[in-house]
Specification:
Blueprint: E1 4-9, H1 17-31, E2 35-40, H2 55-58, H3 68-77, E3 80-86, H4 94-101, E4 107-111, E5 116-120, E6 127-133, H5 143-155, E7 161-167, H6 180-190, H7 196-220
Parallel strand pairs: 1-2, 1-3, 3-6, 6-7
Antiparallel strand pairs: 4-5
Helix pairs in contact: 1-7, 6-7
Bound molecules: flavin mononucleotide.
Length: 223
């Protein structure tokens, strides 16, 4: 049976850097035989978690007036969950976080004297992938989001895995696809050393290639 990939694209930019990473990832995955569906988080009919905690008893979300029932079925049905997102103030975008908060309905949470015990309502065996783009030259601002995905996949069971590709020094939309010459012009405008353009052009191409390889790898190595 073909691997099922559910991808979330979280940038408001139509042709953003994270979307380009996702395109490469999906190209690799589909080439290897995966079936993929992409959800634009900004357009998803998902309201914010109400914090009612009913899901602890019900084992599903009590909200029935939005698209979560359908989306949660797709999430549970997928082998691979990919999140392609810009880093906004050290995190994902609000529309993506709104979806991630609804993952609370997959988990039973018990308060103890020393902390919380999380027990997933269903067995999970999925690959989580984070493809992120950020403006900074260091990936430090992506750490809170990497930590969050590490936490989510661990909390949802022992059989999940998590991999990430983080593209740094990506400011404007589509920059990851720029030629060296386009990067030289951009860096001159931004006041960045233009000598970085050559190595960044190579590195950006490598990031896109890595995303394609990861897409293929996730499809071929299920189970
Ligand atoms: C509201 C907002 C917040 C941002 N916060 C950060 C940040 O905390 N760290 C950073 O390095 N870049 C930050 N950026 C830059 C974006 O991460 C960067 O432009 C990225 O390439 C956007 O990805 P996209 O093209 O996929 O939308 C921010 C941009 C915006 C618009």
């Amino acid at each position: 049976m073909a691997a099922k990939i559910l991808a979330f694209t979280a940038s408001p930019r139509q042709n953003g850097n994270s979307a380009a990473l996702l395109e490469s990832f999906l190209a690799g995955a589909v080439e290897a035989g995966a079936e993929a569906e992409t959800i634009a988080t900004e357009k998803a009919d998902i309201i914010s978690c109400r914090g009612c905690l009913s899901c602890n008893l019900l084992k599903h979300c009590i909200i029935r007036k939005d698209g979560w029932q359908e989306l949660s079925r797709k999430i549970l049905d997928a082998d691979v969950l990919v999140f392609a997102t810009p880093i906004y103030f050290h995190h994902t975008t609000a529309s993506c976080k709104r979806i991630l908060d609804r993952f609370r309905s997959f988990i039973h949470v018990q308060i103890t004297e020393t902390g919380l015990i999380h027990t997933p309502h269903q067995p999970w065996n999925k690959k989580f992938v984070l493809l992120a783009a950020l403006g900074s030259s260091s990936s430090e601002d992506a750490e809170p989001l990497i930590d969050l995905f590490g936490f989510i996949q661990e909390t949802l069971g022992d059989h999940n895995s998590f991999e990430s590709i983080i593209g740094t020094r990506l400011a404007v939309g589509g920059q990851i696809l720029f030629t060296e010459e386009q990067l030289v012009n951009l860096y001159a405008k931004l006041g960045l050393p233009v000598r970085l353009a050559a190595e960044d052009a190579v590195r950006n191409a490598e990031l896109l290639e890595q995303a394609g390889i990861l897409g293929r790898h996730c499809t071929e190595n299920l189970g």
